[in-house]
Amino acid sequence: MIERILVVGQGPNDLGFLTGLRQLLGCDAELVNRLSDGSEARLRDHVTRRKQDAKYIWDHRGDVDLIVRLTDGDTDSPQDTIRKELDRWPSEAGPLLVCGVCDRDVEHWMCLDPDYAAEKLGFDKNQLPGRREERSGFIKNRIKKRCGSQDYMAFVADFVNNAPPATVRRWLANPAFSRFYDRCRDAAQEHTCPVENLRESGGAGL
């Protein structure tokens, strides 16, 4: 069984998205969040930079059963980015590591169903910028405005967990998300952890 998962994202949206996906899958494992966006590294402190290194994370992973790494594809092919990402980790991390790469960034995944995103984040879908950098900033600003007193990452988790079946189907139609979902579900099955099959149910509550 998988009891503790170390999640390594690039920011609160990644970690919130992974938390919501865990809930959507009906997984009971505890998530241990680890930011690796390099924000602390801007302090130019050698020790802090070292803490963003995959080998450092592996050596200091603690008592976890799985490591889930989610990163941005930016302008690279997601498959190329996955290969580069896997090369950063020690070979012995392989059996515990699930690596996912957004074809752009996690904000792009959140907008794969623009109607749902517009409804939950309170904007006209025609306002959604086309360029990746502008879209990412737009979505982050909408989350900040809509989450109110709710914890930011919890708001993003609810956005994912409460996604209707039609939205989940749109996510699964995206090749990068689909590959990541399949890797997560395969890891659960390898550890005999029962999780929801979103390809059959289309989402929670069905």
Give the amount of beta strand, in percent: 5-15%
Q: What summary fits the major beta sheet?
A: 4 strands, parallel
N-to-C SSE series? EHEHHEHEHHHHHHH
**Count of all domains:** 1
The end-to-end distance, rounded to whole angstroms, is 25 Å
- Which spans have pLDDT < 50 for at least 5 consecutive residues? 36-51
Described by the principal axes of the CA atoms, the overall outline is globular
Helical element count? 11
Question: In angstroms, what is the radius of gyration?
Answer: 17 Å
* SS-based class: alpha/beta
The beta-strand count equals 4
List the helices and strands and how they pair.
Layout: E1 4-9, H1 12-25, E2 30-35, H2 46-50, H3 54-59, E3 66-72, H4 78-88, E4 97-102, H5 106-110, H6 114-121, H7 132-147, H8 152-161, H9 165-172, H10 175-190, H11 198-201
Parallel strand pairs: 1-2, 1-3, 3-4
Q: Overview of this structure, please?
A:
The protein is 50% helix and 12% strand. Strands 2-1-3-4 form a four-stranded parallel sheet. About 8% of the residues have low confidence. By secondary structure, it is of the alpha/beta class. The two termini are 25 Å apart. The chain is built from eleven helices and four strands; from the N terminus they run E-H-E-H-H-E-H-E-H-H-H-H-H-H-H. Helix 1 runs parallel beside helix 8. The chain has one domain.
